[in-house]
Design goal:
Helix content is about 70%, strand content about 10%. By secondary structure, the chain is mostly helical. The chain has a single domain, classed as Orthogonal Bundle (Arc Repressor Mutant, subunit A). The chain has a 3-stranded antiparallel beta sheet. Strand 2 and strand 3 form a beta hairpin. Helix 3 packs across helix 4. It is globular and about 55 Å long.
């Protein structure tokens, strides 16, 4: 989480952690409706709607009519939103590399073993992959 926050601080323009998290969820889905996004964020629809209003005003999200139901509005990433997430991803990878490079080979191997065991246990419990990413 510290790496996430540190990486988020360096992207331009600035977005809040909840906004960044919403963009990551929308990007993972390609297109998602507001209710599903609110559910994934653990938020209520009115708060999520205002968050999306700000992201749309900043040019990071687009709202489109659903093909299946014209009354339903779908959220999808804009070109600028994808660009922002690519920048965030590069920053996060650089931060993670810096931390891993500072670790001894033995510590990196221990980390890998621990993460592998964690993933195996989570998979055995039936947790979906998107919760483990």
């Amino acid at each position: 989480m510290v790496v996430w926050a540190r990486s988020a601080e360096r992207i331009k323009p600035k977005v809040s952690a909840p906004q960044l998290r919403a963009l990551v969820v929308v990007d993972r889905h390609g297109a998602i409706n507001l209710m599903s996004l609110a559910d994934e964020l653990g938020s209520i629809p009115s708060v999520t709607s205002r968050l999306c209003d700000r992201l749309q005003a900043a040019g990071f999200l687009d709202r489109i009519a659903s093909e299946g139901d014209r009354r339903e509005v779908m959220l999808q990433m804009s070109k600028d939103g994808r660009r922002l997430l690519r920048q965030f991803s590069r920053e996060r990878q650089a931060d993670l590399k810096q931390v891993l490079d500072a670790m001894s080979p033995r510590s990196r191997n221990a980390l890998l073993a621990g993460m592998s065991a964690f993933y195996a246990a989570a998979t055995e419990l039936g947790l979906p992959d998107e919760l483990l990413a």
